[in-house]
Fold this protein.
Amino acid sequence: MIRSPIITVMVNAARKAGRALIRDFGEVEQLQVSLKGPANFVSAADRRSEETIYQELLKARPDYGFLMEERGAVEGKDTSHQWVVDPLDGTTNFLHGIPLFAISIGLLKNAQPVAGLTFNPVTDEMFVAERGKGAYLNERRLRVAARRDLSNAVITCGIPHRGRGDPERFRRELAAMQEKVAGLRRTGAAALDLAWVAAGRFDGFWEHGLSAWDLAAGICILGESGGFTTDDKGGDTMLLSGSVVAGNEFVHREMLAVLKSA
Ligand code: IPD
Ligand code: CA
Ligand code: CA
């Protein structure tokens, strides 16, 4: 684990918010069986998590700016630093009692990710990275998987929500990818998809229509694990365009070619 001041600040904020999310997740499991369902309760849990992270980060770095999923942008005195926060990635999973969700905190310096944290409080898996200092899962140093061929690769992806994105394009990409890979997955938490590529569990990931808070932490974590993250054209507009293709050097290159052909 990296024990720098900035990572300590991020870890403390994530642990505090994570404890509350775990309590709320227990409640959601009860609410599943009620007629009203847990939807309102979950949006309140999401906002509570964001408020906790916001207050913790603000206390530690009062001048930094923020981009948060619920609160939006908050300008700081220090315009070169910005926290990019998803207080609950994998909301649909959380809502359905599926224990696959995370808190994700990225730090941008001059619009580039320089630190990242993705925390799954259910499994107690804390993925962190800082530029130049490597990426870790708890105490273990991370490295992307070494597979060189898509034919052996397990690839995770994002499926556009009903009424959003470009479902036709997704179906073309899925068909093209399915012809080439060993297996396809969909977790429902983009921040975890990226962290799991960094940990070598998945060999690659692609999705379109994401937001900066889904990606900022993961881009740093993957970069520090020796992975490649680009947009769908091989450029670096991920945070602005919301398109992402990730993997090791070989898998990433092959994925770009397959997606282009689709
Ligand atoms: C969503 C998840 C999901 C992705 C969606 C995101 P949320 O984030 O990351 O995997 O497919 O596009 O919006 O809404 O659960 O924070
Ligand atoms: Ca998200
Ligand atoms: Ca979210």
